[in-house]
Amino acid sequence: MDNNYYSGLNKMLGFLLEEWKLLLFFSLIFFVYFHYTNTFDYFEKRRIKYLKPTIFFGNILVRLIGKKSFIMFQLDTYKYFKGEPFGGIFEGRRPVLYILDSDLIKAVTIRDSDHFIDRAILPTNEPKYINRSILHLRGSEWKAVRSLVTPAFSSARLKNMFPLIQECTNQLVNFLDKYNNSDVEIKDMMVHLTLEITGVCAFGISTDSLKDENAEFKKIAMDFNKMSVSKRLLLFSILLFAPSLLKYINISFFNYEANKKLASILRKTRSERVSTGTRRNDFLQLLIDASVTEKEDVANTKNERHLDDDTVDAQALIFLIAGFETTSTLLSFAIYQMAIQPEIQNKLRDHIEEITKGEDFCYDHLVQLDYLDAFVTETLRMYPPVARIDRKCTKPYTLPGTSVHLKEGDFVAIPAYGIHMDPDIYHEPEKFKPERFLREGKNDIPSHLFLAFGAGPRNCIGARFAMVIVKATIVTLVRNYKFSMCSKTEVPIKFNRKAFLLTAESGVWVRVERI
What is the DSSP string of 429-495? Predict the structure, then answer.
């Protein structure tokens, strides 16, 4: 019996020695399969409805291959879970809890926001002028920088900036006159404007975007998020298979060269201000002053420093990028709606003339232009620049009224576009109806269910600035131009299936005619 035992053991050892490569291969297959599927029971254990995932990709393969736009993915996900308070999807192997219930959205974004103070952004090894921005900062550091930057968007500062904004919109009229009675891709036209406004109002620099159609600054800025196919594939691969590597690899989600050039221009502007003692009443000056004050305070009190030079540069860069891109997108879709619905355009024009009575448009008119406000708000509802709001759980939390427990590091998402297109919240959501945001109608919609600028303390800090720009621009445009459909105008418009930010697949085309 002992001989048989040892004989069998020798045969087994011999097999292992001879076939170790095959065994290693199968072991590796098992390890990979286990690693990339061991989270797939996350929602099932919690009895939460979820989308069935596939190995490696989870539920986002349609996004990776460009089959579905990001904004439509959010809408379809919302529709799938409609009727549930929440639902689950997988981004690769990472579970993401989608919040749909109105009360839970309010709890996560506002009432209990201290449990979700961070955005769901993975730590990266990007340059500091990118990963030190207010979008990336976390916890107490984010709070400190946010409080230092917030005064830049006070009513008093916006009112002081208003003449500069008007000057830029008047330049836009001269710029557009070259395209009178022509079909234009209006998003590109609006980029010229928003770049110039952001440059002049925030940094005291002219980008020449409204003087030179091929301005170098515009060319650089437009490349901020462009990346090659190979880099895109590399980033997706890292995100899916080894996201922790992002902390060690020097790779950016943005176009490295373009952002490096933009950061260099802004850094040079800041250095010149400091060295010459030149002062302006703009965003950059507030950052400089806040940084100097904080530095002196740290020297006297030994408090922690937050607004160092790298962080100042990061806030300047993200303000420039976010300011010109999202605002130009909002303006382009607003003009698109005017073009496809001339009756709304005419009503808007009559409303502006009724309020201003032919006088020069001024900052104080803004509060009186309620139909204009409703028109812009409805544009944001149908075309939110960011279709999903992400939050990261920063301390243990139980969703109110449920047995669902979230631990630190869990990710939650709110499908803003899905909520905006829910007929139970917004009647006939597929129709563009500014009236829904007038007086009584506006009060019928809970404020936390209008998510174009996010919700709660981590909402968009530049929302008021963007709204002032958009309203001032629309007033100037409808007083000087008529917009109509042309042969290239898409109805309905198709969204870009590869972009993360809201973009039209074939551009936003309209016909421009001088009044």
Answer: TTS--GGGGSHHHHHTS-GGG--BTB-GGGS-TTHHHHHHHHHHHHHHHHHHEEEE--TT--SSPPB
What tokens appear for 52 in the block? 């069935």
Q: How confident is the model at residue 19 (pLDDT cuts 50, 70, 90)?
A: low
Give the amino acid at 178: K
Distance CA 197, CA 210 (A): 10
pLDDT of residue 232: 76
Give the Cα separation of 4 and 434 in Å (integer). 87
Average pLDDT of span 97-121: 96
Distance CA 409, CA 414 (A): 16
> How far does CA 409 lie from the centroid of its chain?
21
Three-class secondary structure of residue 430 per DSSP: coil
- Mean pLDDT, all residues of the chain: 91
Q: For each of the domains in the chain, give its residue range(s) and CATH number, in order of start.
A: 101-514 (1.10.630.10)
pLDDT at 24: 76
The single-letter code of the amino acid at 53 is P
In which element (H, E) is residue 231 found? helix 229-241
Cβ pair 496, 504 in contact under 8 A: yes
Taking residues 357-370, report their average pLDDT: 92
> Token pair 């009724």 is at which residue?
354
Contact by Cβ (8 Å): 62, 73 = yes
Tokens of residue 505, six digits: 């697949």
Helix (H, G, I), strand (E, B) or coil at 136: coil
Q: Distance (Å, rounded) from C-alpha 263 to C-alpha 282?
A: 17
Cα-Cα end-to-end distance for the chain = 105
pLDDT band at 10 (very low <50, low <70, confident <90, very high): low
Q: Where are the beta strands (DSSP E) in 286-404?
A: 389-392, 397-398
Question: Which pTM was predicted?
Answer: 0.91
Task: Tell me which amino acid residue 358 is.
Answer: G
Distance from the Cα of residue 278 to its chain's centroid: 33
Is the bond preceding 53 in cis, omega lying within 30 degrees of 0?
no
Find out whether 99 and 108 touch, Cβ atoms under 8 Å. Answer: yes
**Is residue 21 classed exposed, middle or buried when 0-12, 13-18 and 19+ CB atoms within 10 A define those classes?**
exposed
Pick the closest to residue 454 from 426, 427, 420, 499 (CA basis): 420
pLDDT, tens digit (0-9, with 9 covering 90-100), for 140-166: 999 999 998 999 899 999 999 999 999
Distance (Å, rounded) from C-alpha 236 to C-alpha 30?
23
Examine the pLDDT at 422 and tell me if it is beyond 60: yes
Quote the pLDDT of residue 60. Answer: 93
Specify whether the CB–CB gap between 407 and 91 falls below 8 A.
no
If pLDDT is split at 50, 70 and 90, which confidence band does 437 have? very high
For the beta sheet containing 481-484, the strands, ordered from the edge strand earlier in sequence to the opposite edge, are: 182-185, 509-514, 481-484
Written as six digits, the tokens of 320 are 């420039």
Are 193 and 169 spatial neighbours (Cβ–Cβ below 8 Å)? yes
Residue 168: per-residue pLDDT: 96
